[in-house]
Amino acid sequence: MTVTALFLGTDADWAKFSLALLSECTALPFDVALPRDTACTTADYIVMAGSRIIDDFTPYTRCKALLRLWAGVEDIVDNPTITFPICRMVGGGLDAGMVEWVTAHVLRHHVGMDVHLHGQDGVWRDTVTPPLAADRPITVLGLGALGAACGKALAGLGFPVTGWSRSPKNIEGIHCVQGDVTRALDGAQIVVTLLPRTAGTENILNTRTLGHLAKGAVVLNPGRGELINDDALLDALASGHISHATLDTFRQEPLPADHVFWGHPQITVTPHIASATRAEPAAKVIAENIARGEAGKPFLHQVDRTSGY
Ligand code: NAP
Fold first, then answer.
1. Beta-carbon contacts of residue 248 (< 8 Å; ≥ 6 apart)
2. How do residues 38-94 score in pLDDT, each as one tens digit?
3. Per-residue b/e over 49-65, b at no fewer than 16 CB within 10 Å?
4. Is 200 in the pocket of ligand 1 (CB under 6 A)?
5. What is the whole-number distance in angstroms between the Cα of residue 147 and the centre of ligand 1?
6. Ligand 1: does its nearest atom lie under 6 Å from the Cβ of 222?
7. Does the beta carbon of 165 sit less than 6 angstroms from any atom of ligand 1?
8. Ligand 1 atom 19: the closest Cα is on which residue?
9. How confident is the model at residue 24 (pLDDT cuts 50, 70, 90)?
């Protein structure tokens, strides 16, 4: 038996993922063909990288699931022509990469690294002793695969971590709250946004909610650009209420070269690199889901189309 999994992605996506996908699929108890031709409307699965290549999925009548190689699904979740399950990437190196990015940027601000990185001018700057982690409250917005992993890593370093989610959670080391987001933000010195973009999360950081952070707080946004009201952030930076924002995601990507965020002295721009899907572990997740589909078992990481993530 041959199962057909249509690969949707750019040449670069194909170069990155094809070998690992084919290699993982050889371990399955059936053959898997991985064509790239969108005319292959008899595909049993669609394996999709980030780039949207087709809008109309109506012809793919045999498809059992769309298996995304990326964590986010904002661009496809509302597509009415996708009548089969959508599964997003969880694992695939995304959690480990995000923990490393978030921890690195938290520690940069926590220990005041910039003072010494930019101060190589013969001046002995030894007067400021940063607080210990235990005295630096951090809030993580979103306690899903990535938020929970980052929150646990930060708690492991000794930071008091508050996490916010829609549903109740019980995660060791994290004070988990739901409801009004200001309950999670009150007094936080660093906030990390790891929410999907939905109607309920857009502009979640705005003038009112940013006002609940401690004076001089730092914002890290590896989630989605739309989570922050950009004007509110710029105002809060200008007033000093927020001291710095490290932004990895933006309303428009790539961030236009003339955007005010570039070169802003209180903003660090990183180009949506906080965490990338790694080919080998991601291929294992895709192969597992194809095996499940063929065995009639529930898919892993199926998106809830009504909540949008
Ligand atoms: P996830 O597992 O779906 O988790 C999302 C979390 O957000 C969940 O805890 C969810 O609450 C919470 N949430 C959603 N809507 C909410 C609302 N209205 N109020 C309160 N909490 C809400 O997603 P993930 O895998 O952790 O990924 C998080 C985000 O990271 C992605 O959506 C993507 O935007 C971003 N990301 C960025 C990069 C990068 O390189 N920059 C890479 C990968 C992912 P429940 O648990 O109660 O459902």
1. 101, 220, 221, 222, 270, 271, 272, 273, 274
2. 999 999 999 999 877 899 999 999 999 999 999 999 999 999 999 999 999 999 999
3. bbeeeeeebeebeebbb
4. yes
5. 7
6. yes
7. yes
8. 166
9. very high
